[in-house]
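TICKET #2291
ISSUE: user wants both folds in one file
ATTACHMENT 1:
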Amino acid sequence: MKTLLRTTCLALMLALPLTACKTLQGGGTSGANKYDMTYLRTQIKPGVTTSEEIISLFGQPSYRDDGAKGPNYWAYEESKDNALFSSAMSSLGLGTAGNAMSGNRSLNIHFTNNRVHDFNVTQ
């Protein structure tokens, strides 16, 4: 019985952080990753998508350069750090395993006349 309880707790400690990663990636897009180019190409149309539509998709940017005629450049930062996963791995004596889940990506959007001119993702 004690072994079964220990195994169940271990499984939960490993499974819960992984489900949190998937939930945080989507950000309200039904599991879609907002920094995936396939998703971005369906949502952002150069010359069509406005800055207001970008805000509704991604929220306020991490960095913005706005001019008198509207936005020039916005950047959004995605952090893949999962503190819950890292702490679970540390408690199991596998502290470095949590580092594999870390990383950052940036979505960079350039505007002309309040419409997206182009965009890219950097890692």
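ATTACHMENT 2:
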Amino acid sequence: MTRDKTGAMGPLIVAGVPAAARLRARVPALTRRVVTRLRSELPVYAELPGEEIAGDIADIVQYTLRLLADVIEHRRPATDAELAQQRDSAAQRAEEGVPLDAILTAYQIGTAMCWAELSQDARPAELPDLKEAVDRIMVLQQQVTSAVSRAYLQTRAILDSQEHGGRHALLAALLAGEPDERPGVQRPAALYAALTLRLSTHPDETLPGPGAGVAARRKIRRVRATLDAFGAGTGEPALTSLDSSGGTALLPLAEAPPWPELCALTDAAADAAGVPVTAAAAVVEPAGVAAAVAENTEIVDLVERTGRGPGLYRLADVLLDYQLSRPSVALEGLARLLQPLDSKPELLHTLETYLRHGLDRRGCAAALHIHPNTVDYRIRRIARLTGLSPGRPADLQHLTAALVARRARTLSP
């Protein structure tokens, strides 16, 4: 054991250099080798999405290697705070359904490879330092095993209790329109943001094999975490029922938030999931949850059927489409206003594009890849055939309603 002139312990020396510095210098290359071996020897890691391997898994491997260098350098065990990332990683793997034995085996493989790297070219005179380095490695391995196992099992217990416990029961009762008032049953919040979400398919979900299921669970976990964070200030849990295609979320609120906040939440969920998200929302009291969710579902269906883009919608955003999607005599009458264009799809498409661009002939022309004069010509033809011109305010309202009525009639189930 080496000591400096003050009597303090000096660095552990292996292969003629400080062991910690030697390990840190090799962390990037060693991380890649560890990850490659995990994928080759552990089937569950081979099935994980490439994004997760290059991101979360590589990050935790690199972090653990650097932590090992720290404990060797300072010749002490890891602190509880330093093990937080291993605990978080274990909780994520638990939510994704990765078996605990595979996680612990992965850490053992990484530790063995780290030891082989560190002890290479060690000299006989360095045996005391090498022995202490081994002791530090084994202590850290024991700490990591304990922290990972505890976090994994706690997460699984929480997931199981949520599935069969109070949160699930409360969600079911609210969706049924029958909040359970029995003593001991979890009470509803004063207000909820009721969200209906549609999640697009992540590319990793289309991969063959079990990895697709892992990618789906990962997407759901990230969306759920985003929704939980939004309602964290109330002290009440978010109530969610999600699968890979979307579902329902009830977010407890102390007061109704500004609409832009809910729009930002939807954008954050899309970023977290890595896929476009289409959603509808309404802020309601517990008694209004069931009706709000039913209406939200209709709104999302309508948004998708009419070709709108992803984002958050409310009834006011699709009011005309929503009303005209109800069967009525007026619906057929409005749709017939554009009947003269049935045999001229280029005119219908031009009209839709022209209205979508706010009557901007140049924007419309650019979208259609035609000359602005061609847009003018087609709009004049539309006016001659239908008797309605977008340039007249009253006619513009009728044309907009007629287009919506045609879509509603065509896309009605």
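RESOLUTION: both attachments delivered.
EXTRA DETAIL ON ATTACHMENT 2: DSSP finds 17 helices and seven strands in the chain.
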